[in-house]
Amino acid sequence: MSMIYDEYGRPFIILKEQQAKARVKGLEAQKSNILAARSISNILRTSLGPKGMDKMLVSPDGDVTITNDGATILDRMHVDHQVAKLMVELSASQDDEIGDGTTGVVVLAGALLEQAEKLLNRGIHPVRVAEGFEKAAEVAIETLDKIGDRVEFSSENIDPLVTTAMTTLSSKIINVNKEKMARIAVNAVLNVADIERGDVNFDMIRMEGKPGGSLEDTELVNGIVIDKEISHPQMSKEIKDAKMCILTCPFEPPKPKTKHKLDITSKEAYEKLYNQEQEYFREMVQQVKDSGANLVICQWGFDDEANHLLLQNGLPAVRWVGGVEIEHIAIATGARIVPRFSELSEEKLGKAGVVREVSFGNTKERMLVIEDCANSNAVTVLVRGGNKMIVEEAKRSLH
């Protein structure tokens, strides 16, 4: 703060900007950044390895997440410091590229920064420290290339892959059933992998979870599993040689797009309106039947009137199927997503060997299983567990 006078002798007090006053430079700034990164590393350190502890995270909405997955912990945290955000991005990139070691990379980065701080205190320039780390990385990579073994495997000999998967699952919540889970993971990947090209289409592997049962009940389904049920209890629960039409248009009469008001003043006018509505429904159902479909999958809902008409015409239906699930079903069955009933045709139908509704235990929980799809590569891992938190953590561990 300083005082000056203008040309008339009036005093002015000049205050420094708050930013300029609080700005940290040089070695202090470097130490501040290192401290922020190390604080993130120290949070994750206790969850590293087979004896690592799980973290309980509570969101502002009160949702509880229990996990020891580094990427998930950092993703749920609200980090403001820019250098600390780099550690979060480091964990996320490790998760995207490798899928494992999300905690280890953050802890390793924190340990390297801890050693870098000691070198800075000795007066070594930060650029020299960075160059030293780069040379050390080159030496480490060369050493790994020398001591590394090439593990041969084939679709008949998957034991090396199972052993590797079991190692990665040792620190997860599913380590009690790690052999079964490892085999499920390996078989799921091999089902969708092109071994000759060395390519895996992970979009063909779905992860579905259903609370109830135990982790041992987790299974691999050769097909698509969706958390929906047949829309009417009297419709057929198992459809063999299914030919399904996938609709993104509502199963209801068209509505004016502008605001409107309809006055009905007589019984004849009501009956005329009712008959017109029925005619719309009948035309829609007939267009579905004419295409040769024996199963309707609709992105939107439909009322009891349409549901009853579908039942009368022997057309099982599934409603309120999400956009992502519809895309998976279309890819797996070779179907085309149809936006209008008038565009329905036989070549746009998806084909599957069997579509069945399965129930779990003595509960009313039901799911739809689509097996023997035209594109038989699609698989679903159906994860079971005692409650929702265990199911979610098991899905994170496997994925």
Mind explaining what this structure looks like?
- The chain is of the alpha/beta class and 399 residues long.
- Helix content is 43%, strand content 19%.
- It is built from twelve helices and 16 strands.
- It has helices at residues 18-22, 26-45, 70-76, 82-97, 102-121, 126-147, 159-169, 178-192, 267-290, 304-312, 323-333, 388-398; strands at 2-5, 11-14, 55-58, 64-67, 193-194, 199-200, 205-211, 219-221, 223-226, 238-247, 295-298, 317-318, 337-338, 350-359, 366-373, 379-385.
- The strands form five sheets. Strands 9, 10, 11, 12, 13, 14 and 15 form a seven-stranded mixed β-sheet that branches. A three-stranded mixed β-sheet has the order 7-16-8. A two-stranded antiparallel ribbon has the order 1-2.
- β3 (55-58) and β4 form a beta hairpin.
- α2 (26-45) packs across α4 and α7 packs across α8 (178-192).
- The mean pLDDT is 84.
What is the topological layout?
Elements: E1 2-5, E2 11-14, H1 18-22, H2 26-45, E3 55-58, E4 64-67, H3 70-76, H4 82-97, H5 102-121, H6 126-147, H7 159-169, H8 178-192, E5 193-194, E6 199-200, E7 205-211, E8 219-221, E9 223-226, E10 238-247, H9 267-290, E11 295-298, H10 304-312, E12 317-318, H11 323-333, E13 337-338, E14 350-359, E15 366-373, E16 379-385, H12 388-398
Helix pairs in contact: 2-4, 2-5, 3-4, 4-5, 7-8
Order of secondary-structure elements: EEHHEEHHHHHHEEEEEEHEHEHEEEEH
pLDDT under 50 segments (min length 5)?
none
Strands, total number: 16
* Estimated radius of gyration: 30 Å
Query: What is the count of helical runs?
Result: 12
The percent range for strand residues is 15-25%
From the N-terminal CA to the C-terminal CA, the straight-line distance is 58 Å
